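User: As part of a screening pipeline, I want to sanity-check one entry by hand. Below is the sequence and the SMILES for pyridoxal-5'-phosphate. Please return the complex as structure tokens so I can compare it with the automated output.
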Amino acid sequence: MDDETRLASAGRAPRDFHGAVNVPVYHASTILYPSLDALEAMHLRREEDDSRDVTYGRSGTPTSYAFEDAVAELEGGYRTLSFPSGLAAIGAALLAFLKAGDHLLVSDSVYAPTRAFCDHVLRRFGVETTYYDPLIGAGIAALMRPDTAAVFVESPGSVTFEVQDVPAIAAVAHDRGALVLMDNTWASPLYFKPFEHGVDVAIQAATKYIVGHSDAMLGTVTASKAVWPKLRRSVRAQGLCAGPDDLYLGLRGLRTLAVRLARHQETGLVLARWLKLRPEVARVLHPALPDDPGHALWQRDFRGASGLFAIELKPVPRAALALMLDGLEHFGMGYSWGGYESLIVPQHPEKIRTIRPWTAAGPLLRIHAGLESPEDLIADLERGFARLGQAR
Ligand SMILES: *Cc1c(COP(=O)(O)O)cnc(C)c1O
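Assistant: Here is the complex for your manual check:
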């Protein structure tokens, strides 16, 4: 079955819901039992790692199971859990597999709040984090210690777009008994299949492409069969769960993910190629461009590119940049991405990175190509560059 077909069917069960095409939104906390026998049987079943019982709103409802089943199928993992945000999913995944005294390896290009979680939360619980060069590949062997319990990858980095050699990193990690956790948000479950590349735990900020309309916060963690029981037990003990309306928006978003992503990819490439020819642009950071340093790995491991990439401008005064950005009509200035609308936002990796310092002379702008007409987007950028030139 192709992913397009999967997206149309995954998690659905019309016969369970009076024939309704979509799974209903279950608003539920309390679940009632008709007898003492039923109540006690539930207590036995809910201890099983594969239990799908509906016992209490926090522990799973038909709405959350539908969304989680669909994501697990698409990522190619065993089971998925959903979370109130992508960052909550990242934190829960790390807490599930790390303990005091463990060592963690994290890519220097990782999403900045993930880094803050390692530095400010994990550190307090006795987990030591070492950041590594995202381009390290099999060289990660030199950083592995006897106490290294996990390696965290994000490929490509969602600000600077280095593509990581995930299979090479996973081979080393597994050889040393460490797990591989991956933030797979950029590619979505459609364009990178984490479990085919050695990942044990795959994370989505579903807020981005899965929800796809900039109107809900949602995260997922998908586990291989081997690590699922540990994940489930840890998350259950923490009490994290996503709200039913947001889960529904996640399910709704999945149905159109393939067509939206194809368009994001296409428009992103049209913009990237056009931007490459602009005299104001020093560099375009987009792994699907043939001369990008990550292109060969991207071509080997990925099935497509999403609409998120970056450009490095030649040095410009701040006032000129403000004139360019403030006047854009179709590009919103805001964080996040993955919605239908185009975005552009300055990023500052030079303030964050420690292992592969960011030393570009000009500003770094991250662009999310939305679903607008590429011609309108290019015209908007062209007028922006004209303002930039006038101000210089
Ligand atoms: C946005 C984002 C997250 C966090 O997701 P939220 O739902 O905003 O908490 C994690 N990883 C990446 C790469 C992101 O872009």
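Points to compare against the pipeline: The pocket of pyridoxal-5'-phosphate is lined by residues 85-87, 111, 154, 158, 183, 185, 205, 207-208, 217, 219, 336 (CB under 6 Å). The first helix runs from residue 3 to 9.
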